[in-house]
Amino acid sequence: MPTGSASPDAPYFWQNEKSGLATGDIDIFIGDTVIWQNADTAKHTITSGTVDDGPDGIFGGSNFISPGQSYKFTFTETGQFPYYCLIHPWMTGTVFVTDGYKTIQDVGKTVGDGSTTFDVEYNFDRVLALNLIDQGQKLLTFEIIGNSQSDDGTLKIRLPAELIDGPFVIIVDGEKINFEESKDDDVTTVSISMPNDSKLLTIIGTSIVPEFGVASMVILAIATTSIMLASQKSRFQLKF
Fold it and tell me: Which of 36, 74, 103, 177 is most buried by a 10 A CB count?
C-alpha cells in the first residue's frame, strides 16, 4: 500500500513488489504466502470479501494495519479471493490461487483424423511446447523453452492414459533419466528432475492415442458396409 493510497484520487492503491502491477490483483500458487505492507501514512485493513457483500471471514478482517506494519496470509486452497480496505473501500483487489499447472491444449490433433485430443497439464518454471507425436514409436516429444528461473528444476507432467500409457521411458536431450510417477484414475503424474540447460523431453510409452479417432472409425464402418452392399448387389445382378 504505497504512500497516498488512502486518497480516492491516488494514481494507484497497490504496488506488487514481485510483478510491478498496481491493480491489487495477485497471482500465486497454492501454499504461497502473501504479505501486505503498509507504506502509507494512514491506517488500512486487508479484508477478505467485497464492498457489496461485506467481509467473508476467509482472511484479514477489521484489524488496522498501521503505517510500517504488515499482514500475511498463506493460501492453502485454489480459487479467487477478493479483498478490500474497510476504511478506504475503493482499494480493492483479488488473489488468484492456482495449483501451478499450465496447459498444452489439443494434444493429438495432428494424428489420425484430429478428433481425439487431450489437454496435457504441467508444472515447470520453463515452457513446454509439443514437438512431435510418433505413433509408430509410441512417443511424445516436447521442446523446452526459456531459461530456468529457480534452483528447483522439477517438472511435473500429467499424462492421460488415453493419450499415452506406461510403463514409461523418459529421455532428456538423448539421455535416459530416472523419474517418479503416481497414477490417479486414468492420469499419470510424472515427476522429473530436469537439468537447467535441457532442450528436448521425450516420453516413450506402451500405447499412444489411436491412429483412428471416433469419426474415422464411423466413416470406415460406413465405407465397409457400402462396399459389402455393393458387392452383394453385383452378385445379385449377375444371377439375372
Answer: 36
Q: Is residue 192 part of a domain?
A: yes
Structural domain that includes position 87? 25-98
- For a pLDDT cut of 90, what percent of the chain falls above it? 67
Structural domain count of the chain:
2
DSSP symbols for 181-235: EEEETTEEEEEEE--TT--EEEEE-SEES-SS-HHHHHHHHHHHHHHHHHHHHHH
Query: Strand, coil or helix: what is 145?
Result: strand
CA 109, distance to chain mean position in Å, is 19
Is the pTM value of this prediction over 0.90? no
Based on the fold, state whether residues 69 and 113 are members of the same structural domain.
Answer: no
**What CA–CA distance (Å, rounded) separates 154 from 146?**
15
* Same structural domain, 29 and 91: yes
What whole-number distance in Å separates Cα of residue 104 and Cα of residue 97?
19
